[in-house]
Amino acid sequence: MQKEDCFYLGNIVSKYSFKGEVLVKLDTDDPEIYENMESVFVSLGNNLVPFFIKRCRLHKSNLLRIDFEEVKSESDADRIMKCGLYLPLNQLPKLTGDKFYFHEVIGFTMLDDVHGDIGIIQSINDSTAQALFEVQKDDKQLLIPLNDEIITKVDRENKTIHVSTPEGLVDLYLS
């Protein structure tokens, strides 16, 4: 399994018991849907290694307490500490309406209320305080804030995202 075929679920942040249980900080708004997993991929070095789960349950809101079959001691747990957990993309819950996963809208056309087609979404930059759509229009790159006030419609069928950008933002890039 390759990382590009998976989504990031969270990171192992600490040991929970001397028997090798670990706590995982989940990167999700719905941690409860991951309570009964049977396995996950753990990022070890440059590889994703399958780990089977003996028991898995929520621990204080968005932490998941996992007892892996292969991890039986504190030293076993130390070897996977701070590692990322991944699941195959086909295990992502389906989103509807105007909610979407970042990877799902790459390649969508962005349509602005005033300017019409303002380009193709190349990527989403979520390393800044405000996540941004990186949109390519001919030889120009536009950075459009990703927030609920700007997105008016997500049309999966036609692969478009409709936006109402603040006055002057698109002109800043295209003029």
Structural account:
Helices cover 7% and strands 46% of the residues. It is mainly β. The protein has two domains: 3-91, Elongation Factor Tu (Ef-tu), domain 3; 108-170, no CATH class. The strands form two sheets. A six-stranded antiparallel beta barrel has the order 1-2-5-4-3-6. A hairpin with a 3-residue loop joins β4 and β5.
Please describe the topology of this protein.
Layout lengths: L5 E10 L6 E5 L12 E6 L2 E13 L3 E6 L5 H7 L3 E5 L20 E4 L3 E10 L6 E6 L2 E6 L5 E5 L4 E4 L5 H6 L1
Parallel strand pairs: 7-12
Antiparallel strand pairs: 1-2, 1-6, 2-5, 3-4, 3-6, 4-5, 7-8, 8-9, 9-10, 11-12
Let me know the largest β-sheet: 6 strands, antiparallel, barrel
Secondary-structure class: mainly beta
**What is the typical, i.e. mean, pLDDT?**
92
How many runs of DSSP E, i.e. beta strands?
A: 12
Strand content: over 45%
CATH superfamily of the largest domain: RimM
Nearest-angstrom radius of gyration? 20 Å
Number of helices: 2
The helix content is under 10%
Q: What is the class of the largest domain in the CATH system? A: Mainly Beta
CATH architecture designation of the largest domain:
Beta Barrel
Q: What is the H/E order?
A: EEEEEHEEEEEEEH
Uncertain stretches of 5 or more adjacent residues? none
Domain Ribosome maturation factor RimM PRC barrel: 103-169
Pfam families: PRC_RimM (PF24986), RimM (PF01782)
Keywords: Chaperone, Cytoplasm, Ribosome biogenesis, rRNA processing
Subunit structure: Binds ribosomal protein uS19.
